[in-house]
Amino acid sequence: MRVLIADDQALVRTGFRLILEADDIEVVGEAVNGAEAVTAVRRLVPDVVLMDIRMPGTDGLEATRQILGGGSDRTKVLILTTYDLDQYVYAALTAGASGFLLKDVTPEHLVASVHLVRSGDALLAPSITRRLIERFAQRDESKALRHRGLAELTPRELEVLQQLATGLTNAEIAGRLGLSPTTVKTHVARILSKLDLRDRVQAVVLAYETGLIAPGAPRPE
Predict the structure, then answer these.
(1) Residue 121 contacts residue 192 (beta carbons within 8 Å)
(2) Which of 70, 94, 97, 67 is nearest to 81 (CA)?
(3) Whether 81 contacts 113, CB under 8 Å
(4) Which residues of 158-171 are buried (b: 16+ CB within 10 A; e: fewer)?
(5) CA torsion, points 151, 154, 155, 158, in degrees to nearest 10?
(6) What integer pLDDT is reported at residue 139 of this predicted model?
(7) 72-103: per-residue pLDDT in tens?
(8) For 11-39, what is each residue's pLDDT tens digit?
(9) What domains appear along the chain, each with residue ranges and CATH number?
(10) At what angle do helices 170-177 and 155-165 cross, to 10 degrees?
(11) Neighbouring residues of 22: CB distance < 8 A, sequence distance ≥ 6
């Protein structure tokens, strides 16, 4: 696995490098701001970028947009922040980040998180996702019109997406809909493919922004 660390604090970069390399994860480069991160990603094509939000010049949010807006699915972005559940994290998720970590993360959690994100999963607990999005998401009519992929979803896929958007896990969705977890996983994969989304966090964001589910709505039975 190849990882790039983007943070303006040398001690943070060094600490994370030591933790990752101790687990045989290759740190292919470091960046002190967003502009350097974008350039390094294009040159090195890492699997995962550990991206600080607040950096001088081009910040982590803009760097994330540029990196993930290029159309490549190879690199995943994992946001580093000292702030929990704020507007910066929501902005990062809407930009395509696969999750976020607080900077006081334990070494074991950091390593596990990098592996998880690299495998294609999203690092954000469903319950946290829901609270975060309900706090900041606003319905965007233009986005609803642009996402014609919603019309391509089958009735069952729409049902799964609605359940997913309320913060349910695959196992919980399976129990609600009388399906096997494997079947739910297949539906989720098809939803992401049809909507051209990176992970389930992006699917939750889309469900709120397009009005498929409203903030504060009870979980569908």
Answers:
(1) no
(2) 97
(3) no
(4) bbbbbbbbbbbbbe
(5) -70
(6) 55
(7) 678 999 988 776 556 677 777 778 888 888 88
(8) 999 999 999 999 999 999 999 999 999 99
(9) 2-124 (3.40.50.2300), 139-209 (1.10.10.10)
(10) 130
(11) 107
CA distance linking residue 56 with residue 94, whole number of Å: 21
Q: Give how far Cα 75 sits from Cα of 71, 119, 150, 155, Å.
A: 10, 11, 26, 32
User: Between 87-94 and 126-136, two packed helices, what is the crossing angle to 10 degrees?
Assistant: 100
What are 181's two structure tokens? 């977890």
Distance (Å, rounded) from C-alpha 191 to C-alpha 93?
A: 18
Looking at residue 46, what DSSP letter applies? Answer: -
Residue segments in the chain with a per-residue pLDDT below the cut of 50:
none
For the record, the structure tokens of 201 come out as 């966090």
Tokens of 123: 């690092």
Long-range residue pairs from 7-14, CB within 8 A, at least 24 positions apart, any chain: 7/31, 7/32, 7/50, 7/52, 7/55, 7/80, 8/32, 8/33, 8/52, 8/54, 8/55, 8/56, 9/52, 12/52, 12/80, 12/103
Distance, CA of 219 to CA of 221 (rounded, Å): 6
Report how far residue 43's alpha carbon sits from residue 191's, in angstroms, rounded to the nearest whole number: 32
Q: Which tokens hold the place of 93?
A: 């998720």
